[in-house]
Amino acid sequence: MTTRPTAASTTSATPRTAGDTRGAAHPAVKLLAVLLVAGCLRPALTSVGPVLDLIGADTGLGTTALGALGALPLLAFAALSPFVHGPGSRFGAERVVLWAMVALAAGIAVRSLPGNAWLWCGAAVAGASIAVGNVLVPSIVKRDHPGAVSRVTGVYTSVMTGFAALASGVAVPIAAATGNGWRWSLAVWAVPALLAAGVWALRMRGTRSRAAAAGTAAPTVSAVREKPVWRSAVAWQVTFFMGLQSTTFYLLVNWLPTMETARGVPASTAGWYLFLFQAVGIVSGLAVTVVMGARADQRATGVLVSVPMVAAMAGMLWAPGWSPVWIVLAGISSGSTIVVALALIGLRTRTFAHTAKLSGMAQSVGYLLAAAGPIAAGRLADGTGSWTPVIVLIAGLALAQTYVVLWAGRDRYTHPEPANA
Q1: What pLDDT was estimated at residue 212?
Q2: Which of 104, 211, 308, 405 is 20 to 30 A from 59 (CA-CA)?
Q3: How buried is residue 212: exposed, middle or buried, by Cβ count under 10 Å (0-12/13-18/19+)?
Q4: How far is the C-alpha of 92 from the C-alpha of 212, rounded, in Å?
Q5: Exposure pattern of 384-398 as b/e (b: 16+ CB <10 Å)?
Q6: Distance separating alpha carbons of residues 71 and 87, to the nearest angstrom
Q7: Cα-flanking dihedrals φ and ψ of residue 106, to 5°?
Q8: Domains in the chain and their CATH numbers?
Q9: How many CB atoms lie within 10 A of CB 2?
């Protein structure tokens, strides 16, 4: 039986390369930069759901097309995530994240221009930019905080969830206040992306000289050829857990306001319901890190946070008048499971490079599953004239997620311990 490496041994096992530079910025600036980037990884997506009806009325898109619009960034995640590790290693993870934030601001701005073509193009660019942050931020956390992966993951995930919730809550009020429909409520999120890029540039101070110095050394070549992460059973278990929890999240983010308005709830109230769903996730995301502790085995935690989603969907079916209660329960589950999923990416890998590869795989396949969710929900609602089948679908996905975490949560690694460890 192999023993888990300590934080020190994990760090020393990872060679310094041009893609693995820590920079000279103050630790507080480095952490602030990570948190600001995390805050930009969801508003471009969650600001869309509350104004989908406005977008449809303005552009003429039907329910299925609107579902596809919501899924487009997720398809970009799926398509690009496996390839992010390459540029991150070649040019440096920090540099790639910086340009991703600049591109995200541009994509958000373009998406709000008049004309349906700009809407689709901007959504694709925004999705591609977010994919970079999705993959590289967990690996940077693993590299910079090897002994506190769960705790730091909980903090940056809570920031991500908090900004996502804020974007949902203010989308309809901004659209109403500006008198320009939905466009300004989406465009405003280009500003935080530019701010994140500026602070991230401060984080990078000194990385160029360090990268140059690291690049002068001959690269370390492993004596044993490692198997690809795609051939690891542990990697697939983490990937499916990531995919299932992402699917339930994006189904609710895209369609919860529409589901509620179909029941006669005012649009602004439905938008705040979505805010409530995500705001609860902020607290639960932080709280679950206490439950997780420093343990390697996270099966019990994974089950504990997955079951409430099943209960919430059952409640929405059988007691719809208590929607706020079920939304809170769903938010507790969703906010906790994303922390567990992202933490497992770091906990199931030994090095920065392994973490980046597993992050790319988990988010590629995971978001491909998630992208199918909004589209399938739109078709189900169109075909049946009811949102009940969608609620049943979410409950089924949550049940599958509960089973998968019994495997993904075990104390296992994607790659065996090196022979000289």
Answers
A1: 39
A2: 104
A3: exposed
A4: 11
A5: eeebeebbebbbebb
A6: 25
A7: -65, -45
A8: 24-214+227-408 (1.20.1250.20)
A9: 10
